[in-house]
User: Which sequence fits this backbone?
């Protein structure tokens, strides 16, 4: 068994991954679920919200770097 060294991960990368896992991915997956349920408007709205959230986060992260 080996130990993985995670000390080289930057704070920005950690926050980006957490943002993706907690906000963007659930929005997109719920959007896909709604599309399979036949609720196209709701599905595309959720997917669009996830994509928009990702771009807003990229803009904000770009201001701090």
Assistant:
């Amino acid at each position: 068994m080996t130990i993985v060294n995670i000390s080289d991960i930057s704070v920005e990368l950690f926050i980006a991954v957490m943002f993706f896992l907690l906000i963007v991915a659930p929005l997109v997956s719920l959007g896909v679920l709604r599309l399979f349920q036949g609720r196209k408007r709701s599905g595309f709205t959720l997917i669009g919200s996830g994509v928009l959230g990702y771009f807003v986060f990229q803009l904000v992260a770009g201001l701090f770097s």
Notes: The two ends are 37 Å apart (CA to CA). The chain has a mean pLDDT of 85. The chain has two helices and no strands. The CA atoms of residues 12 and 65 lie 9 Å apart.
